[in-house]
Write a sequence for this structure.
């Protein structure tokens, strides 16, 4: 009787671990998507290859839709000297009932680097999207936009800034 119970217990444990592994690898679990692309805060640029970024974009499109809100979608840096680097952070709030996953932040030029969270923003919570502008080689009035690509009904969502760059 004791051997039978041990055998049944070991079989159940083995099958449970096997089932957990299948769920994680298939992407069904809520953490599988995070583990696939890693964790991190907004102070990391996500440097994915073009193929990996395309795959991430496609994976996010398959997620349940939610909504997001960004207050003050435009920012003015004012006057700056050519060559200065400046940053501004926008607060992104998940106003929906599903986790918000930002797939990408597409900028309008290479002079602007985006930083955004890799992990989902839970319903009712906030995340940060930061744009860093390098004014080297720029002069005069500059306007730049970026699109937040996410599993949101109102995505792509546009944010942007302008600045007056004084030539050296």
């Amino acid at each position: 009787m004791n051997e039978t119970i041990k055998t049944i217990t070991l079989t159940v444990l083995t099958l449970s671990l096997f089932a957990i592994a299948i769920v994680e690898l298939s992407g069904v679990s809520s953490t599988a998507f995070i583990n696939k692309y890693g964790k991190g805060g907004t102070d990391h640029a996500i440097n994915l290859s073009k193929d990996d970024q395309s795959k991430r974009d496609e994976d996010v499109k398959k997620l349940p839709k939610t909504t997001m809100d960004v207050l003050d979608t435009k920012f003015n840096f004012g006057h700056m000297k050519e060559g200065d680097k400046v940053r501004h952070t926008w607060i992104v709030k998940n106003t929906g009932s599903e986790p918000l996953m930002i797939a990408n932040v597409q900028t309008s030029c290479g002079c602007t680097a985006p930083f955004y969270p890799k992990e989902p923003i839970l319903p009712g919570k906030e995340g940060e999207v930061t744009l860093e502008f390098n004014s080297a080689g720029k002069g005069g009035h500059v306007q730049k936009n970026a699109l937040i690509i996410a599993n949101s009904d109102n995505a792509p969502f546009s944010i942007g800034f302008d600045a007056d760059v004084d030539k050296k």
Q: What stands out?
A: The longest helix spans residues 2-26. Residues 1-30 form one domain. Residues 28-45 have pLDDT under 50 and may be disordered. The radius of gyration is 22 Å.
